């Protein structure tokens, strides 16, 4: 909607801007009928300062949407926190929506946010999302989207990611460097890119160290829960009594593994080393404490907002967005569930 | 702002509504000049469907604000999740803001939300908040506020609470019923109502069971962290070698206590029982698992939104809000950090 100015009011009413201005200020030299016409139109156009109307006039709502797969989740709540902190500094407010990994929810949420005239959207793709028309539609309407964490290479937008392959490679290499020779991997479901990439990283590390890949050592679970880790730990040790390492897709799974190994009197790390992924708070609480890959959620939330802000500003200047990809580094946090390194990690 | 109708467009332009309607539909029997005037005004008035403009017309933004002390926090992230879920069902979006327990932040956030024309606000008071003028101002402007969790009896608004005194009484009673005779209490800082109430609940349970209150058994900490629990556990056992129960203000503190007792080879629960508060996920992960008081965050978030929605509807009907207080029940979740009950909990 075009900006409402004195000039616009004047043009619609066929009056001079001076007359309109005076009418609004209730000058005595303007006749009552004219005053009434001016005030009526100004009211209709909401010429009075008003945040919603200002939003309309500036084409800015100073609102952004943050679509998150799961709120009650250490990594994602860190992302929310980082995003809100960065947004606050720039005077933006953040609408938070949860997809629960549902494609339908993702579509609905994007629609809602468009209707709310948000200035931009941060989106982590749901595990169910396989086509991207709904995302392209939003971008085509001039609302920038920045993808974070769960992304698709097929979407032309800015992105904030971690290199899951590299992170998983490093985690597996760490287990090998600490003496593990037979490492099981608990992976997520087939589809999400993160589980694919971490699986590839695991395989690459084995290959690099001339350890033959054995598909029987890969355990897949749909739900990345503590309970699944607990269940699979027993299966792993039953299937492969000489297994000496477990690399789990998330800390939650790894925590379930640790608990079950405790119960089964499988010494960790003396017999089996366990490595998680994410470096949640709970890694410090388990017995033994859990070695993990640090995945910087707060920083990811901050950087995702900053990237979105940059794209919003670019659009505002009438320029074209050149999508940018930021990779946030990860690192291993060794704790007591893995043995000390026997040689330096490469 | 008055609703933009065909009638209004017609009145401003001095045309009939039929002419305006036809002009908008580009009927051939309307002259081009008239069409241009109508379309220009309709565009200026944003007569096209548009959510911001609809918001203006209905005086509704369908946005609410949720002010939360801390996002990366199991209990509060459950509240966010419950609130967003309930809001979604009613077609509301939720702006999330974090205070970090700062009074200044709380004031700023309320201002921002007012400027954003939210329909209502959910607020948990920051620990620093001692006066309530800023809250009264918002309520006086016709924006309903519902307080949740950390509330003040001095604010006239709807509230969703748990009865911290009762919950702490029950937790202490549970320890007594399981055979504890000398129970330490790790409490929070002096000011927040929740720490005061849980402390009172602890004292009342001792009194009811004719156990003399000993202030030396009460340990205060400003930061409710794992590290503080870890630190205080050693101090408790050094100060009182015959202590046989610890009731901690939060699970995080209790988890630190458990870890330290593990390291000090203090058998839990054989020598000392440990009871937490909140029933976070981490209670299932500790060794031994942690008995706790279940504090239903998700439900609190849902109910807080529902109460706010009710208040918003009341205001919309032009009626006065009659503040309502909902108390959400808590219950003990016994796990392995406390002994089995020797008699029934009252």
Automatic annotation (TrEMBL), chains A, B:
Which keywords does the record carry?
DNA-binding, Transcription, Transcription regulation
A Pfam family assignment: Peripla_BP_1
> What InterPro entries is this protein classified in?
HTH_LacI (IPR000843), Lambda_DNA-bd_dom_sf (IPR010982), Peripla_BP/Lac1_sug-bd_dom (IPR001761), Peripla_BP_I (IPR028082)
Q: Does the keyword Oxidoreductase apply?
A: no
A GO molecular function assigned to this protein is: DNA binding
The residue ranges of the HTH lacI-type domain are 4-58
Spell out the SMART domains in the cross-references.
HTH_LACI
Q: Which PANTHER family match?
A: HTH-TYPE TRANSCRIPTIONAL REGULATOR GALS, LACI-RELATED TRANSCRIPTIONAL REPRESSOR
- Output this protein's name: LacI family DNA-binding transcriptional regulator
Q: Which organism is it from?
A: Gaetbulibacter aquiaggeris
